[in-house]
Amino acid sequence: MPRVPAFEVATYPSSVVVLRLRPGEELLESVSQAASKLGIRSGLVIAIGGLRRAEVGVFKGREYDVAVYEAKEGETIELTSALGSIAVDENGKPSVHIHVTISLPDHRPASGHLLRGIVGPLAEVFRGSVATSKAGTLGTGP
Asked: What distance in Å separates the CA atoms of residue 142 and residue 40, rounded to the nearest whole number?
């Protein structure tokens, strides 16, 4: 009897956009503006880099429990991992949703939903996409 694979693999046309954000830029706003300018309607967002200020929330059913972290002069909040998505909202504008893990200047970790992030010294954002079918779902591949 032939072995049945535990998963299926399909390939889709894809593209990657790389953004290099400069000090003082707001990460979510910059990604949203770039998506708008480039006509990006959906995709995966991955980022690394550094932040001067991070507002991170954990959703508690009705609202976010928010923690604000701010680096002192000469310090950086390391953006060790950011993973999220871009989707079009009900008004046709890009909506960016990113979860982060950061390392504070004293090496303590923090994580949650990125509500606001001010870049410093830089952040590299990678946006990947896959083609969608006319119905808006992933195609079935070749």
From this structure: 24
CA 69 to chain centre: 18
Domain 16-130: state its class. Answer: alpha beta
Whole-number Å distance between alpha carbons of 32 and 37 = 9
pTM over 0.90: no
Please list the alpha-helical segments (H only) found in the chain: 27-38
Bridging pattern class, strands 64-70 and 94-103 = unpaired
DSSP 139: -
17-26 pLDDT tens trace: 899 999 999 9
Where does residue 26 rank: exposed (0-12), middle (13-18), buried (19+ CB within 10 A)? middle
The residues spanned by each domain of the chain are 16-130
Nearest Cα neighbor of 31 from 117, 137, 136 is: 117
Which tokens in the block code for residue 118?
């001010």
Using one digit for the tens of pLDDT, what is the confidence trace for 67-105?
Answer: 999 999 999 999 999 999 999 889 988 999 999 999 999
Task: Give the pair of three-digit tokens for residue 92.
Answer: 């046709």
